[in-house]
């Protein structure tokens, strides 16, 4: 029997489950990274196994690739898929314009490349990720290992301050440094400035990339906000149904 889910996991689960509605038979799907994206991968795996859904998945990290294969999703590289119908991924923060901070799981580079190579990007998140102004979540910046302390000092000079001396190592062998900015007044400009610093590979600000957000709540409520259509749809999903659960929880 599956263990009882916490309200936050229920929220992540219902957001992920509802987001599978964006996926149709034959699609090439970008698969995000993180705990919410892992729910999505499991939900899609269930549809592949039980309903015969045929999709090709392009994972955004080695972790997601392992999980996707484990649940029976056919995995190819972005170069093989070339262009994707939809990418569904989690986020650390989203604002009213659906600009995002991503990369809390250290996968921002692949996530940004895959999302940009998609007709549509859909974010799945619990309501706690919604913010008025981006920046409370430390902004991850991926830097090359060569001279990373110097790059970090340059970023510090350009911006405010940087915490943490032991960098996280990404799938590409790069480092992640986190910017504790508290509030990002102009995310578009900050993103451009950061990416001009030599040694910076990419940053976790996703500007004008996300098309829709599926927001999950602990009671099973789901909201789908589409920034292009300007619509908000409400739904309710039942997570007590055992059919929706996974035996490894
Ligand atoms: O950007 C990410 C990984 O690089 C994740 O999508 C983000 O950190 C959200 O993670 P979670 O769904 O576990 O809260």
UniProtKB/TrEMBL annotation:
Mind telling me which GO cellular component terms the entry cites?
cytosol
State where substrate binds: 33-36, 89-92, 102-105, 129
- What's an example GO BP annotation here? pentose-phosphate shunt, non-oxidative branch
Q: Which InterPro entries match?
A: NagB/RpiA_transferase-like (IPR037171), Ribose5P_isomerase_typA_subgr (IPR020672), Ribose5P_isomerase_type_A (IPR004788)
Family annotation (Pfam families): Rib_5-P_isom_A
Record-listed E.C. numbers: 5.3.1.6
Q: Which UniProt keywords apply?
A: Isomerase
As its record notes, the protein acts as a catalyst of: aldehydo-D-ribose 5-phosphate = D-ribulose 5-phosphate
Pathway given for this chain reads:
Carbohydrate degradation; pentose phosphate pathway; D-ribose 5-phosphate from D-ribulose 5-phosphate (non-oxidative stage): step 1/1
Subunit notes for this chain? Homodimer.
> What family name appears in the similarity comment?
Belongs to the ribose 5-phosphate isomerase family.
**What is its biological role?**
Catalyzes the reversible conversion of ribose-5-phosphate to ribulose 5-phosphate.
In terms of HAMAP family, this protein maps to:
Rib_5P_isom_A
Mind telling me what this protein is named?
Answer: Ribose-5-phosphate isomerase A
Originating species: Pseudoruegeria aquimaris
């Amino acid at each position: 029997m599956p263990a009882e889910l916490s309200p936050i996991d229920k929220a992540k689960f219902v957001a992920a489950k509802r987001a599978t509605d964006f996926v149709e038979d034959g699609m090439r799907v970008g698969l995000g990274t993180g705990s919410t994206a892992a729910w999505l991968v499991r939900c899609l795996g269930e549809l592949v196994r039980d309903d015969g859904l045929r999709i090709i998945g392009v994972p955004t990290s080695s972790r997601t690739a392992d999980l996707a294969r484990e649940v029976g999703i056919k995995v190819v590289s972005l170069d093989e898929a070339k262009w994707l119908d939809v990418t569904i991924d989690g986020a650390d923060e989203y604002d009213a314009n659906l600009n995002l901070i991503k990369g809390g799981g250290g996968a921002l580079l692949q996530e940004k490349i895959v999302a940009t190579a998609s007709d549509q990007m859909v974010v799945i998140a619990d309501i706690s990720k919604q913010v008025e102004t981006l920046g409370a979540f430390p902004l991850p910046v991926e830097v090359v290992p060569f001279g990373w302390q110097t790059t970090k000092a340059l970023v510090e000079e350009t911006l405010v301050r940087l915490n943490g001396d032991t960098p996280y190592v990404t799938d590409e062998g790069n480092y992640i440094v986190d910017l504790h900015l508290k509030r990002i007044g102009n995310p578009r400009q900050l993103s451009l400035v950061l990416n001009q610093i030599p040694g910076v590979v990419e940053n976790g600000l996703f500007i004008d990339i996300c098309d829709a957000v599926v927001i999950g709540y602990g009671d099973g409520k789901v909201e789908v906000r589409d920034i292009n259509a300007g619509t908000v749809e409400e739904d309710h999903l039942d997570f007590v149904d055992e059919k929706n659960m996974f035996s490894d929880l």
